[in-house]
Amino acid sequence: MRSIDPGNDYESWRRAARELLVAGVAPGEVLFEREQGLFGGAGGLREEPAPYRAGDAAKVPAAFVKLARAASCHREEGRWALLYRILWRIVKGGERDLCEISSDLDVAKALLLGKNVRREIHKMHAFVRFRLVATDGESGRETYAAWFEPEHRIVEAAAPFFRKRFANMNWSIFTPLGCAHWNGEQLAFSEGLAASPLNGGDSMEDFWKTYYRSIFNPARLKVKMMRTEMPAKYWKNLPEAELIGPLIQESRRRVETMHGEDLRPAKAAPRNRYLASLGEMSAAAACSGPSGNQSLAEMAGAAANCRACPLWKSATGTVFGEGPGDARVMVVGEQPGDQEDIAGRPFVGPAGKLLDEAFAQAGLDRSAMYLTNAVKHFKWTPRDTPRGKVRLHQSPAAGEIEACRPWLLGELHRVAPEVLILLGATAARSLLGREVKVVSGRGLIDAPKLAARVILTVHPSYLLRLPAGEVRQAAFAAFVDDLRLASA
Ligand code: URA
């Protein structure tokens, strides 16, 4: 009897299996035994294996490769022997179409393993939670990391999804069964870790909690279904999991409240009748909109489920405004960008950093202001660049601005700021209801129905697009001058 170490993955088993086949070793004459422990194996990084091409294994049907690749990720000890038995029957036994016979016991077993693996990959895609662990001082590029505990060896199979979804940031996903790393150019893998290298919470965890709280709809609560979709074994690594128990307990009370709640905008005693009436008209046109008696936090929760335009489909989530509800100054941008979409907060990317710098020079305190956008979902298109695939910003269409307007009006109505700053044409169009030439019309504008003082200025992204040097410096100085009108 031979004893063979098949390694941990399909590729190393395939090499071993090929040698055995060539040597004519029958399935009953070989033991597939793993020599290293769970966290053993060569250290360092391994590159992603080359994708399978049909010619790679000319003698083996593609259906077998597909079956074997999936089943090999399972941790069932007998998987290597099972796959070798199937391979032997195909190559030596002439059962070329074996993989098509799902009633065959060996094939059925392998199919079941593959099914469990695919389910686990799906769970990993859903339940990995990244934390921001570093920001490069020069490029501003952020590095995120996550800890996940999968049942099976699925990291390599699951990683391409994260590469595509989070192409613009560096990330690592650590698991006991292998780790994946993306640096913006290359996907690499390393051995698993015994325990999470991450500790302590961070703002991404707060984001997941806020997001989960906002998508939690007590009227739809089905605890059994929830436990199936989000099995308890994953909960310990989900920052939002601590909310599940209290939210379930609270749900009955919330359902009763929702049933008694008037979801139309309030008609009685609006703080600003003009805004309330605009909000009412637009909210009626949208399929969901703010309710007149919701607080800002409740509106943020409701906006998380907004389907008034199709942008929600390709965005990570709704990015609602943030800041004190009684802020003296409210700032309105266009729409969240790539980084805002991931973080779930407005103005945290490059345009936000420039805005922060301008606020500082204008003597404005960001934490005392309410910052939001005319459109609450990131609109983008995929684009191949020398840095890899990126999500390229696209300007929102008039219909999308219109669909989001009830939320913006709802925020403006509740914050009721003394000073309103409109950054760029989209914010102006949304609140003034017409096309505006920002560069020629900038400065204080007359819109007393919106706020006592309304300032129209350029969007910080416009400054980022100008050639670096004197031109940009002069434009930045003019931008700061506009913002100073708020503190005057
Ligand atoms: N640009 C915007 O208009 N808003 C953001 O939140 C980020 C970039």
What labels would you give this structure?
elongated; 6-stranded mixed beta sheet; Uracil-DNA Glycosylase, subunit E; 18 helices; 42% helix; 488 residues; binds uracil; 5-stranded mixed beta sheet; alpha/beta
Describe it:
- With 488 residues, this protein is α/β, with parallel strands linked by helices.
- It folds into two domains: 2-125, no CATH class; 262-484, Uracil-DNA Glycosylase, subunit E.
- Helix content is 42%, strand content 14%.
- It has 18 helices and 15 strands.
- The protein has helices at residues 10-22, 62-72, 79-91, 105-127, 155-165, 203-215, 223-229, 232-235, 244-260, 273-285, 296-303, 338-343, 350-362, 398-415, 424-432, 438-441, 460-465, 470-487; strands at 2-4, 30-32, 46-47, 131-135, 142-147, 170-174, 179-182, 187-190, 329-333, 370-373, 380-385, 388-393, 419-423, 443-445, 453-457.
- The strands form four sheets. Strands 3-8-7-6-5-4 form a six-stranded mixed sheet.
- A hairpin with a 4-residue loop joins strand 7 and strand 8.
- Helix 13 crosses helix 18 (470-487).
- The longest helix has 23 residues, at 105-127.
- The chain is elongated.
- The chain starts with a strand and ends with a helix.
- The relative contact order is 0.07.
- Residues 37-42, 54-58, 255-271 and 277-288 have low confidence and may be disordered.
- Bound molecules: uracil.
- The site of uracil has 13 residues, from helix 13.
Number of helices: 18
What is the percentage of strand-forming residues?
Answer: 5-15%
How many strand elements? 15
CATH architecture term of the largest domain: 3-Layer(aba) Sandwich
- Report the average pLDDT across residues: 82
Percent of residues in helices comes to: 40-55%
The assigned structural class equals alpha/beta
Q: State the CATH class of the largest domain.
A: Alpha Beta
Largest sheet entry = 6 strands, mixed
User: Ends: how far apart?
Assistant: 88 Å
CATH superfamily of the largest domain: Uracil-DNA glycosylase-like domain
Low-confidence stretches: 37-42, 54-58, 255-271, 277-288
In this entry the ligands are:
uracil
Shape: elongated
Strand order of the largest sheet: 3-8-7-6-5-4
Count of individual domains: 2
How large, in whole angstroms, is the Cα Rg? 28 Å
Stated plainly, the CATH topology of the largest domain is called Uracil-DNA Glycosylase, subunit E
